[in-house]
Amino acid sequence: MTATLQFTDQAEATYINVLLYGPPKTGKTTAACSAPPGVLLLNMDLPNASRFARSRHPDGAVMEVAFEGMATLIAVSNAIAQQGTDRMVETVVIDPIGELHRRLLEEASNRAIRPTLNQYGDVGVHIERFCRYLCEQPVNVVICCHESPMKDETTGALERLPFTGTSNPALGQKLMAMVDVVGYTGVVEQTDGSHSYVAQLINDRGRRGGDRFDVLGDWRTLDLAQWFALIHNPQPTPQAVAA
C-alpha cells in the first residue's frame, strides 16, 4: 500500500480558540462575550450568569442558546457547518465546561444519583469531540472553566487546573492543549484602589497560561477584542500590570 502526501495551504483567515479559567466572578463570561460578534453563547450556568455580559452588548451581538442536552450540541455543530458567506456566528462561547459536563451526565444517566464510570467517560469524550470540532471550524471559540486546585504528587506543589466536571484532570489538559490561548483570570487591585480584571498568560505559581502566537505578553486585561486585534496585527501595546 502506498500513500500520497497532500500539502495544505495556510488558511486565509485566522480563527482563534481561547480557554479562560479561574475563580468565580473574575470576568470570564464578560471577557468571552467581548470576542468578535455575533457571539453564540452556550450559557450552562444560571440565567443571571450572562446578564451583565449581555448588557455590555445590547445590540444583539450576543445570541444566547437554550440548552436542551446533546441535541443542542448537534444543532450548534450543524449551524456552524452550514454557514455560508452570510455569517451569523463568528464566535462560539461555552460557559462553563463543568456545568456542561454535569448537565450532559444527568441526561446520559437519566438523572441517576450515582452515574457509572462509563457514563462519566462517555460524557468527557462527547465534550472533547464537540470542542475539537468547533476548534477545527472557521469560527472563534472561547471555552470557560472554573479552577480546580490539585496537588502534584511528585513535587507536593498545588496546581490550579481547569475544572471540567470531574476530579480527573485529563479533559482539562486536553482542552488546554487544543486551544491557541490559555488565560488564568483574576482581579488585581491597582495603586489608586480600583480593580482590573486580567488574565495570566504564562505558566507561573501553579497556574497555567500560554499564547501560541507569542504576542500577548505575560499578563493582559480581559478584553478579547483587544487580544484578537493584536493577534491579527501584532504590535507593541501596553500590558496589564499584575500585583
Notable features of this structure?
243 residues; alpha/beta; Rossmann fold; ten-stranded mixed sheet; 7 helices; globular
**CATH class call of the domain at 17-176:** Alpha Beta
Q: What can be said about the biggest beta sheet?
A: 10 strands, mixed
Helix content bin: 25-40%
Named CATH topology of the domain at 17-176: Rossmann fold
User: What gyration radius follows from the Cα positions, in whole Å?
Assistant: 18 Å
Oligomer: single chain
Coarse structural class: alpha/beta
Topology order in helix (H) and strand (E) letters? EHEHEHEHHEEHEEEEH
Query: Could you tell me how far the N terminus lies from the C terminus, measured between alpha carbons in angstroms?
Result: 60 Å
Tally the beta strands: 10
Uncertain regions: pLDDT < 50 for 5+ in a row? none
Helix tally equals 7
Beta-strand level of the residues, as a percent range? Answer: 15-25%
CATH level-two architecture of the domain at 17-176: 3-Layer(aba) Sandwich
Q: Label the overall shape.
A: globular
pLDDT averaged residue by residue: 91
Describe it for me?
The chain is built from seven helices and ten strands. It is α/β, with parallel strands linked by helices and 243 residues long. The chain is globular and about 60 Å long. It has a domain at 17-176: Rossmann fold (3-Layer(aba) Sandwich). The longest helix has 19 residues, at 117-135. Strands 1, 2, 3, 4, 5, 6, 7, 8, 9 and 10 form a ten-stranded mixed β-sheet that branches.
How would you summarize the topology of this molecule?
Blueprint: E1 17-22, H1 28-32, E2 39-43, H2 51-55, E3 62-64, H3 70-81, E4 91-95, H4 97-108, H5 117-135, E5 140-151, E6 158-163, H6 170-178, E7 181-189, E8 195-200, E9 210-211, E10 219-221, H7 224-232
Parallel strand pairs: 1-5, 1-7, 2-3, 2-4, 4-5
Antiparallel strand pairs: 5-6, 7-8, 7-9, 8-10
Helix pairs in contact: 4-5, 5-6
